[in-house]
Amino acid sequence: MANALVNVPARARRGEIIEVKTLISHPMETGYRRTQLGARIPRDIIRLFVCTYNGTEVFRAELHPAIAANPFFVFSTVATESGTLAFQWTGDNGFSATESATITVE
Amino acid sequence: MDRERSRREFLAAAAAGLGLGAVITVAPVHATPKEMEDAIQKVVGSARVSKGRVRLELPPLSENGNTVPLTVSIESPMTPADHVRAIHVFTELNPQPEVVSFRFGPRAGHARVSTRIRLANTQTVTAIGELSDGSFWSATAAVVVTLAACLEDA
Q: Per the domain annotation, does A54 fall within a domain?
C-alpha cells in the first residue's frame, strides 16, 4: 500500500473555499528510461486521481508520465456540509490507493 | 538556344528553391511542434483557442527538470452557469505532449491547481482552459531547464 498524505482543514465555515493538498508516494516511472544494459523500463504511473466530497466528485486529474514522482496536488473545494472527503488514485499494474479526511462545517 | 534554355531553367529552379527555402526557414519560428498541436486538437476539437484568461506560473529557470512546480489558474465565479470545466497542460519537447488534465465543477470554488511536472528540455509549456460556455483559453510559459528529466539511467 502506498503512502498517501492529505491535508484538509478540520473545520470550515459553510460556503468557505478550502484548500486541499495531497501527496502520494509513487515512482511515476515514465516508460522512456532505460537501464544501464539498454533495456527499457516499463511504464508504471498513476493515471487518475479523483476527489469526492460526500460522494460527489469535486476534482479530478488525469495524469501522464510528465507528472513528477510522488504526485502532489493542491486544489480547492467549497465546504458545503460536514462529512468526508475521499481521495482515490488509480494507475498501471493495478495500482489503487485511497485516503479520506473528515471535515466539520459550521 | 540550348544554353539559353538551361539558363532559364536554372533561374526558375533557383527562384523556386529560394521560395521553398524561405518557407522552411521562416516557418519553425512560431510553429509549435506538430505533436503538441495534434494533442491540443484532440482536446479542443474544432473550437477556437484564444489567448488570455489562463494564468500559468512556472519558474523561468529550473535546475531540475524532474520536478518543476507548476500552478495554473483561471479567474472564474465558478457558479453552475459559469465555471471552468477543465485545464489541460501540454509541452512541446517532452516525449509525450500531454502532461495533465484537471477537471473541475462549480464545487471546486476556485479553478486553481498546483502540482509538480517533469520537463525533458528547455521549452515552452502551454495550458488550455475549457470554460462551461464552450470557449477555450490558453497561456504559455517558457522554462529553461538545466538538468533534463527522462534522460538519466536507472
A: yes
* Domain limits for position A21: 4-33+43-105
* pLDDT tens digits, one per residue of A15-25: 999 999 999 99
d(C-alpha A105, C-alpha A43), whole Å: 41
In a domain, B153, yes or no: no
Query: The domain that contains A16 carries what CATH number?
Result: 2.60.40.10
Q: Which residue of B has its CA nearest to A15?
A: B109
Phi/psi-derived region of residue B53, left when phi > 0, alpha when psi is between -120 and 50, beta in every other case: left
Q: ipTM for the complex?
A: 0.92
Lookup: cell for A38: 539498454
SS3 B25: helix
**Starting at the edge strand that comes first in sequence, how are the strands of the sheet with A4-7 ordered?**
A4-7, A17-24, A72-78, B111-117, B68-74, B54-57
Is residue A75 one of the residues assigned to a domain? yes
B36 pLDDT band, cuts 50/70/90, is confident
The beta-strand segments (E) located in B4-65 are 49-51, 54-57, 61-62
Residues of chain B neighbouring A66 (CB-CB closer than 8 A): 91, 94, 96, 98-100, 117-119
Q: For residue B117, what are the domain limits?
A: 33-145
Q: Look up residue A85 and give its three cell numbers.
A: 472527503
Q: What backbone torsions phi and psi does residue A18 show, to the nearest 5 degrees?
A: -105, 150
